[in-house]
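Supplementary Methods S3. Complex input for the XIL-bound model.
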Amino acid sequence: ASTLGSAAAAQGRYFGTAVAAYKLSDSVYSGILNREFNSVTPENEMKWDATEPTQGTFSYTSADTIVNRAITNGQKIRGHALAWHSQQPSWAQSLSGTTLRNAMVNHVTQVATHYKGKIDSWDVVNEAFADGSTGARRDSNLQRTGDDWIEVAFRTARAADPAAKLCYNDYNTDGVNAKSTAVYNMVVDFKARGVPIDCVGFQSHFNSASPLPSDYQSNLQRFANLGVDVQITELDIEGSGTAQANSYSTAVKACLAVTRCNGITVWGIRDSDSWRASGTPLLFDANGNPKQAYTAALTAL
Ligand code: XIL
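Predicted complex, serialized as structure tokens:
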């Protein structure tokens, strides 16, 4: 196949990208988006601050633009993210306890209901575990409402949109380490107690300080063995040339080697679209030309 999306589809997978609504009028950007990708993740437009800027007042215009366009183009949609410590509206940041818990539950219900039937996979909870060796939860206003906030978010999302696959998503969980093992243990516990969870997302933001781990595939596999799908959700790899291309190839092959790894999403289209302040972590250069990394990813599929 000649595009990332069609090559992934031939393997029973999707190949997606993060999309920013304000860039869709850029014809180079939307041209690559239409040609190459068969899944999209709104980069910021579905986050709490974007969708509920004032408590109880929901704002879906930008996210709807991305969603409706994706449906027209036959692309899957990853919803991102219902409950997260970051990019909360200021009104939520100032809440705590039962008030915050109820606001979170209402937010999950409203947003998941608005997009009911349209979302392939939802990142229900994003980045709830701490970095480092403790395996602890990350401290946040949501965490301080009680350990059960994660399972409450998942049960609430399931009730609102029973057809969407419900994912837990995080970073620094790409290899086997204390943080990924803590997430693993949560999935074991959720499966044992019937908390609805269908997938785990591995953000996969790699750079020289945090390179593609050598046990990436085996880590994906150990989660898949628990009976959840696994997805590479925000892939970007700092660097250039052959080294970067080889890392992209390795990451794609790791997913394909895991039967339940059903999709790969890169976190932006061109290097100039990246959230990273500097560097060239993506598959297309600033002019929209495919890089060596692109050819490597396509060849690996
Ligand atoms: C980033 C976006 O790319 C930026 O535009 C925004 O300013 C900050 O958030 N982990 C996530 C994503 O789950 O939502 C983040 O996206 C990148 C890290």
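The chain is about 40% helix and 15% strand. Residues 84 and 286 are 30 Å apart (CA to CA).
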